[in-house]
């Protein structure tokens, strides 16, 4: 009915279930693990699917952890508001980068950075902590970086997670910033994509959403329950591991983009 084999659908469900579990556990990383879906789906279908499921995942987590979230009156200047403000500026820039610059190279560089940073932090967690300036200006600039990177990679949360790690925030405060930020930027990206390319949200997309949502949401709840049992130290370790996974996901995407570009050039020469 949707042009995909039962095996492909089964693999997608497994990948997205793992994505939801880890994102519920850590507060981010859904698209990092979910990037494996791009091996099975074309980017024009896989990316909006990941954005939609990531937004649903974040909304479910936020509802479960609303007691841990700051009230909106406290979002400025030490909450997620400065990050969101920067992200609103950064997303259009990231989409422009996607259209005009060698995206595969950018993803490879940023992915490699995340892998190295995560490995260094896991080996020397104390050395990974740095004294950084805590101001709304700095937070907004980090938000801009996340918006730009999210615009061409679909992983907007990585810079904010790195920044939270450098500030050595406890898990509750970190999630209170990272999750609203990711949710807000994913909704913005979906809205922009719907305006620019409405044909993206076709029949196959909606069938895949209907098939995967019943799996993603329960796995998100399970991840949130496991999160409540984590200490701050173990939460930071898990964060570094998922940052490394995010980097690997970007490297996989970069490799896939390079192969697709080489294939397109080869066909153009024929």
Describe the fold and architecture.
This protein is an all-alpha fold. The chain has ten helices and no strands. The chain has helices at 6-26, 30-34, 43-64, 81-100, 103-123, 136-153, 158-166, 171-196, 203-227, 232-269.
Mean pLDDT: 81
Shape descriptor reads globular
**Helix percentage range:** over 70%
Low-confidence stretches: 263-268
| Element pattern in H and E | HHHHHHHHHH
How many β-strands, per DSSP? 0
Compute the gyration radius: what is it? 18 Å
**Domain module count:** 1
Report the total helices. 10
The major pleated sheet works out as: none
Give the SSE map:
Elements (H helix, E strand, L loop, with lengths): L5 H21 L3 H5 L8 H22 L16 H20 L2 H21 L12 H18 L4 H9 L4 H26 L6 H25 L4 H38 L1
Nutshell version of this structure?
The protein is mainly alpha-helical and 270 residues long.
What characteristics describe this protein?
mainly alpha; 270 residues; 0% strand; disordered C terminus
